[in-house]
Specification:
2 domains, eight-stranded mixed β-sheet
Length: 386
């Protein structure tokens, strides 16, 4: 098969790797608009100690990733200056550029043709291909070109966020909630290598407007956020990498495929960073799509049909959890009055995916602390925010 892939993120690269692994004779060309050394953002996080979901699909790649992970055994929610540890929460992180470089190496080793600094202007460049994969992110040109068939929707959520880094090394995945004269903020912080942590600052629209971020320079914005989280940064600065305030874009598509064209990753649908599954979803799309071709050979239409049939139910379920999580953050100021233990409990229940008993099995120490505060007979308060 001849395969053309638009986009050099985890979804496109991993699919290329898997298809070459499946059959070395496949001719695969991948176009990426940025250079091989460019990445916007800092680190990525997985809710998995050893990214074990990759082990069966590409063992050697999994080995290389596993050896570069930073691992934490807890989630810490800091509210009103009090840290609340959630036991049983295991996460791992890695630099996004390191992840991409490992993918580049494995793709090249298998004979994938990688073309960097090549901006796709028309999917017709892949007209000689048996399969065209749109893995070109939120602003997917492939999706735009065939929008009449994919029938996409794009919704900008109201909260604003900005993705910084910091030399302050966090020893857990940390969510830091605080208030000042302008409103409510939260930082999503996690270490992803031995020198740097990601530090995503988020606030609601009213806070962003009152603080005056719209008229601030990059330096002014960083200085303001450093002041908000001064105690938590321990004197360390925030680092910018073309960091700008943006709204999270919720991307959905009614149809996942058209003729021999298919979407994967953020081009297909976006998963809010608050549930930490965006990169994992990209990998899982690639695994499912490659698995469909393993089953159906070069029957493109049958493989694409199977991909959608297999992936859509679990993807829809994840999106429902993500939607509830987004709503929780958009309304977090309504919960800031809660005691730190109660606040953390409400946070853990926000997606509707767990109840108290399942959380007890996962995080017995946390539930013991919650019941010591609230009483074991207290009725569960699932968040009223939907």
């Amino acid at each position: 098969m001849k395969i053309g892939i638009a986009g050099g993120g985890p979804a496109g690269l991993y699919f290329a790797l898997l298809m070459k692994q499946l059959k070395t004779a496949h001719e695969i060309r991948l176009l990426e608009q940025n250079s091989a050394n460019a990445t916007y953002g800092w680190g990525v996080v997985f809710s998995d100690r050893a990214v074990s979901f990759l082990e069966n699909s590409a063992p050697d790649f999994h080995h290389d990733i596993k050896s570069n992970l930073e691992i934490w055994d807890k989630l810490v929610i800091l509210h009103k200056g009090q840290p609340v540890a959630i036991d049983g929460s295991v996460f791992s992180g890695i630099s996004r550029i390191q992840l991409l470089h490992i993918l580049h190496e494995h793709c090249r080793r298998r004979g994938v043709e990688l073309q960097f600094e090549t901006r796709l202007t028309d999917p017709a460049i892949f007209s000689d291909c048996d399969l065209i994969v749109g893995a070109d992110g939120v602003s997917s040109l492939v999706r735009q070109r065939y929008s009449a068939f994919f029938q996409p929707s794009l919704e900008l959520r109201s909260n604003k966020y900005i993705w910084y880094g910091t030399p302050r090394l966090f020893d857990a995945l940390s969510l830091i909630f605080c208030e000042n004269q302008d409103g409510v903020f939260v930082a999503h912080a996690y270490r992803y290598n031995q020198t740097t942590s990601a530090f995503i600052v988020e606030c609601d629209a009213a806070t962003w407007k009152k603080a005056g971020f719209a008229s601030m320079s990059d330096t002014e914005s960083r200085t303001y956020c450093e002041k908000v989280f001064e105690k938590d940064l321990h004197g360390h600065p925030l680092l910018s990498n073309k960091s700008i305030w943006i709204n999270f874009a919720v991307v959905r598509n009614r149809h996942w495929r058209h003729d021999n064209v298919v979407l994967i990753g953020d081009a297909l649908r976006t998963v809010h960073f608050s549930i930490g599954s965006g990169t994992r979803t990209a990998f899982e799309d690639a695994i499912a799509l490659a698995g469909a071709f393993e089953r159906h050979g070069e029957d493109v239409h049958a493989a694409l049909q199977r991909f959608e049939n297999i992936r859509k139910p679990s993807a829809d379920q994840l999106l429902e959890v993500a939607q509830k999580s987004v709503a929780w953050y958009e309304n977090m100021r309504c919960l800031m009055h809660l005691h730190p233990i109660a606040f953390a409990y409400d946070y853990m229940m926000r997606g509707g995916k767990v109840d108290r008993e399942s959380l007890r099995r996962k995080a017995p120490k946390f539930i013991a602390a919650y019941e010591a505060y609230a009483g074991p007979a207290r009725e569960d308060r699932h968040s009223a925010i939907k």
